[in-house]
Design a protein that fits this description.
The chain contains ten helices and three strands, in the order H-H-E-H-H-E-E-H-H-H-H-H-H. The chain has 230 residues and is mainly alpha-helical.
C-alpha cells in the first residue's frame, strides 16, 4: 500500500497472504483486535480495504466476516456494512443462562471419566492464565480449561453446543475480567472446580460451575441495568 496507512492498516498490518490461508488469517487478525480492544465497538470493517491490505479477493474476506458475525463479534448495519458488535447486549445474560444448562450437564457426565492427564492439562491452563495479560491468550486458555473438564461427556451434540457457547463467551470475557474486575475470582473458581473434579465430587463440581457462570450473568445484568438508568 502507498500513502498514509489507514486506521485498519495500522491495527491489522498489511501483507500478502496465500489465497488458501486468507480467510483464516483475516478472521484471526480481526478476532484478536476485537478481543483486545484495538477495534472498538461500532467501528466499520470494509471488505475492500481488507482485501487490499492482504492482497486477496473479496471472497475470503466475506467468508471471514460471516464467521465473525456468527460468533457475535460483528454485526451488519444498514448503510454501514459490518461493524464491531458491542461486547454486551440485551441477549448476553440469556447466552450465559443457556451455557449454564449445557455446561453443567456436560460436566456432570464427564467428571467420572476424567483422567490424570486431563487434570494435569487443566492445572497447566490455570497456571498459564495467571501469567498472561493477553486477552487472546486468556480466551484460548479459558476455553481449553473448560473443554478439558467436559471432554469425556458421552454426547457429541451436547459438546458441539457447549463449544459454540464457549466461543461466543469470548466476546464477554474482556468485559467480565476487566470492566467488572472478576479476573481473580474466575481463577479461584477454576481452581475449586478442578479440585472437586479430582475428588470425583460431581455434585460439588457442578454447583461450583453454576456459581462461576452465574457471576457472569450477574455482572452483565448489573451493567445493563446501570446503562438503562443513565
Amino acid at each position: 500500500m502507498t500513502g498514509k496507512p489507514t486506521v485498519l492498516a495500522s491495527i491489522l498490518g498489511s501483507e500478502q497472504v496465500p489465497a488458501h490461508l486468507a480467510r483464516s488469517v483475516i478472521e484471526e487478525r480481526l478476532r484478536a483486535a476485537i478481543y483486545d480492544g484495538r477495534l472498538p465497538c461500532g467501528m466499520a470493517i470494509r471488505q475492500q480495504e481488507l482485501a487490499t491490505l492482504f492482497g486477496v479477493s473479496r471472497m475470503p474476506v466475506r467468508e471471514a466476516l460471516r464467521q465473525l458475525e456468527a460468533q457475535g463479534l460483528l454485526k451488519v448495519v444498514h448503510h454501514k456494512g459490518a461493524v464491531v458488535a458491542p461486547l454486551i447486549n440485551h441477549d448476553s445474560a440469556e447466552t450465559y443462562a443457556l451455557r449454564m444448562l449445557l455446561e453443567c450437564e456436560a460436566l456432570r457426565l464427564s467428571v467420572p471419566l476424567l483422567e490424570e492427564a486431563d487434570f494435569a492439562f487443566a492445572q497447566d491452563c490455570i497456571e498459564r492464565l495467571e501469567r498472561t495479560s493477553d486477552y487472546v491468550e486468556i480466551s484460548r486458555l479459558n476455553r481449553a480449561f473448560h473443554r478439558t473438564l467436559y471432554a469425556h461427556a458421552n454426547n457429541r451434540r451436547l459438546l458441539n453446543l457447549v463449544d459454540e457457547g464457549l466461543i461466543e463467551e469470548e466476546r464477554f470475557l474482556r468485559f467480565n475480567l476487566e470492566a467488572m474486575g472478576l479476573r481473580n475470582m474466575a481463577q479461584d473458581d477454576h481452581r475449586n472446580m478442578l479440585q472437586a473434579a479430582r475428588q470425583r465430587n460431581v455434585a460439588l463440581a457442578v454447583e461450583l460451575l453454576r456459581e462461576h457462570l452465574q457471576r457472569g450473568v450477574d455482572a452483565i445484568e448489573r451493567y445493563l441495568a446501570q446503562r438503562s438508568s443513565n
